[in-house]
Each structure stands twice: as structure tokens, then as C-alpha cells.
Amino acid sequence: MCSNGKEIDKFEQIFLNKIKTISEGISQISESEDHLDQLSNEIDELIKYTTNSLHFIPAFTIRKRLTEIKALQNKLEIIRQKRLSHKKFNFKSTLNTKKPPKNIQKTSKISVEESFGFHSRQNETLTLFRDELVNKNIVLKNLKNCHVYLSGPMAGIQLIDLESTRVHSGPVSSSVLAQNCRECHFYVACLQLRISFSRDCRFNSHVGNRAVLENSSGIGFGDYSYEYEGVEEDFEFVGLRKGESKYAGVDDFNWLNQQEKSPNYYFFE
């Protein structure tokens, strides 16, 4: 018991020192993209250190510390998004978005809760192109049996209340949030991927940080595979490095047993 108490004290000291260092780094962040990546990597290392300590740290302490880590991730994400919004769109004029299959028709767009996207649709194919997506926060809400093509770079995506829907998305500079989705298939590339209250969904994903899973089950992860003309430039534009995905890294906040993998997710080829 005494030994366990010493381990907990040591964990707390190391954790608090690390989180202080990262917080100071965020508050004094430079203009360098490498600095952003460095801080992101430090947060990843802190997550690993925390999850590696699950066997002797009380569950309520782990939840508290993971919440603090999420707050740091949010701060870093906001900075990255603000920086991106000041970038000038500098793609070559010769780049044109690859046309989707012939049976796809461009549909009207609507505003959803002050964001751009599609809302309350069934059995439709929905498309948005690069000039409509740049630096936009996209919301897809209450879609059923739809196919969605987002061929361009975005600031963020929210996937809310989707059922039996397939979404092909270009890269995102910040986060993709999937909430209350059922039996869907997503192709997403982003800095952070957060999945909550969802079930039986598959994610072909490229992520800059470990994916976060909350109150979800039957979630599959595979490598990102959506290709369209200009996708390489879009990755560069949002600050992601193609080929450096961490899609196989998943933190399930409802599974704290380090000795066994969470049964709430799986990997596929």
C-alpha cells in the first residue's frame, strides 16, 4: 500500500510538471509549425504516460487527468485553426476538383446552426467542392442513407445524428466530431478525431493525434483512402502530413484496463 502510494505521488509530480511545461509552451507558442507539432507530440507522450499508469492510479484520478489533457488539446486546436484562418488560399488555378460519379448531382447547401453543411436529408447524394469548403466548419446533421462527398480542405467537421450514411471527406485542419452516429462509414483526415455515443461505425482515418472514444461501441478503424484530384495539396494546406497517421492509436475513456484492449473498437484493413 505504501509502495502504491509512492507510485501515485510520483505519477502526480511528473504529470503536473509535464502539463505545466506544455501549458507554458502553448501560451508562448511561436509562429513555427514545427513548434505546434512538437507540442502535439508532447501531449501524445503525456497521454501514453497516463494510460501506462492505469494499473495503479485510481479511476477518478485518471479521468480527471485525461480531462486536463483534453483541455490542452482544445487550446492547441484553437490556435492551429486561428492560424489557418489567416492563411491565404494559394492553390494553383489549374487544380480542379475531381468529378464525383455521374449519378451524383450537386445539391443546395444550407446553414446549420451558424455552420455550413447539410441537414435533415434522406436517400440523397450530397456534394461540396473546394471553393465551398476552404476554412469552413462543416456540419452534417440528421442524415439517413446518404452519400456525402466533401472534396476539399476544411477547418472542422461535425457529424451529428447520422444513420447508414457514407461520408468521403478531404483533410481538416482541426477536429472531426462524430456524435450519435449509427451504422455509418466515414473517410476523414484531421488533427483530432472524437467519437461519442455512436455505434457500429467504420472510420478510414488519418489522424494527427490519437482518436478519442467515449460511450461508443462497435467502432472500426482503418487507414484513410479517399483520393481526389488535389488531395495532396489539401493535406499540405491544412498542415497534415500524409503517411504519418496515428489511426491505430485509440483512447477509450470508458475502458481503463491497460492490460486488455477495449472491446469497443477494432481495426480493419
Automatic annotation (TrEMBL):
Family: Belongs to the TBCC family.
GO biological process, alphabetically ordered: post-chaperonin tubulin folding pathway; tubulin complex assembly
Domain of life: Eukaryota
Entry's localization field: Cytoplasm
Family annotation (InterPro entries): C-CAP_CF_C-like, CAP/MinC_C, TBCC, TBCC_N, TBCC_N_sf, Tubulin-bd_cofactor_C_dom
Organism: Octopus sinensis (East Asian common octopus)
This protein's name: Tubulin-specific chaperone C-like
Molecular-function annotations in GO: tubulin binding
Subunit architecture: Supercomplex made of cofactors A to E. Cofactors A and D function by capturing and stabilizing tubulin in a quasi-native conformation. Cofactor E binds to the cofactor D-tubulin complex; interaction with cofactor C then causes the release of tubulin polypeptides that are committed to the native state.
Coiled-coil intervals, chain numbering: 29-82
Keyword Manganese among record annotations: no
Domain C-CAP/cofactor C-like per the UniProt entry, residue ranges: 101-255
One GO cellular component, as annotated: cytoplasm
PANTHER family, per database record: TUBULIN FOLDING COFACTOR C, TUBULIN-SPECIFIC CHAPERONE C
Lineage: Eukaryota, Metazoa, Spiralia, Lophotrochozoa, Mollusca
Alphabetically ordered keywords of this record: Acetylation, Coiled coil, Cytoplasm
